[in-house]
Model the fold of this input.
Amino acid sequence: MNKPDCKYGAECYQQNPAHKEKFAHPVKSVAENSTVQAVTSNSGNMEIKKRSMETLNQQLEDIKRYKRLSSPEKDICYSGGKDSSYEYHDLTRQRYAVPKVPMSVGILRDIYDSQIEFSQQAEYKELCNEPKKFIKHKFLVLMPPCFEDLWQFCQVQALKTQIKPEETFLQFGLKLVGPYDVLAGKFDRAKVHEPGDYLRHWRFFYDPPEFQTIIVQQNSGVHYGYWRDSPDNTDGLVAWNDVKKGCEFLIVGENIFDAILHFLGNYASVTPFNKKKISDMKKLISDWAQSKDIALNCCEKQKSRKAQIVSKTFHKVGLVVPYDRKTNIGYRPLLESDEKIRAILSKFENLNRFENNLEYQELMRELQPIITAADLATDECDFGTVLELALDFFCSGVKSLHEVMKPLFFTGYSMVNRPQYIAIIKSHLDNRREGINLNLLAGN
Done:
């Protein structure tokens, strides 16, 4: 039986056996390859003509001399022993062809297929009856145990005060959102949205794929959420960010109760009328946590994670990727310092690439050696480098670089086996909204 041709043809990136069996993938002829090479060569020549040969040669020489350092940024918590979190199975540094990841929704096909099937209204209603499955399908991540623990706490308080569980902390200006909207039944009668819409639900401007908002302070940019270095991580680390102040995040605890206490101790508006209520709530949380054997204000997981960080990144929480400290495989520092990269990125601010294309292309020539060096690092198994660069571009907030950072994210997350984050960053960059009104359900 003749199989239909894959729309990507010989350039298809998918390795799924079912996909290979379903679609035909014609092999490029020698003539076709020659044509592609000729077109590529002509395009390259046109670009080279725009530059002076002296500058180009110098850039190429700089990249050729780009070598890895002996290890990533040193930290007092780094261990010199074997990193037990990752196994490399005799992985050696070898150059290989990195798959070309297309910047289209095609890369999300495998992730979204199951979601699209659920997008029929009948199946959607059935999915709403299983909150865990709903969260996994719509948000693509797993929730840590403390997520349900806090909900149980709120249900108990709701019975005492005759309010809804999600309103437990409203008296202090704090609101449960995101996946808590699922537990509160707010999606039950909501219209069915496109898959990407769910991934943008309460996703603030500077929230990277590793962060998921679950609590917000009303009428402010302060929000808390889970920080996961990989989508299936359930350690329960919670982080804080104020989007109005910029891209920097702060790990504030190891469970959601730590986040509530952090807010009550640092951001709640204390008045003579609510001072006792705040104190009482802190005690209620402490007593509940103790009764459930939930440790508060611990830092063991944070210390363990800190030992795995390979670079600080602009968001300050750091990047964790598979890294072998004996062979130094998995990460190498960027070609330029953070200060130099920030200086270049600052030139893109308020620059409209369509109105000032020549200026934009001139600035891109400053970034290109850094991007090329990151691609070289990826070729040699240092996948963390391209992710660090992508995150730094993202944290700069420069929207004109969205199409530049997409392939960096796609390649990096593919190489470290985090495809869910590809879907999240794709959806976010396609509609990256500013402000604090980011509720998907607001229009229902």
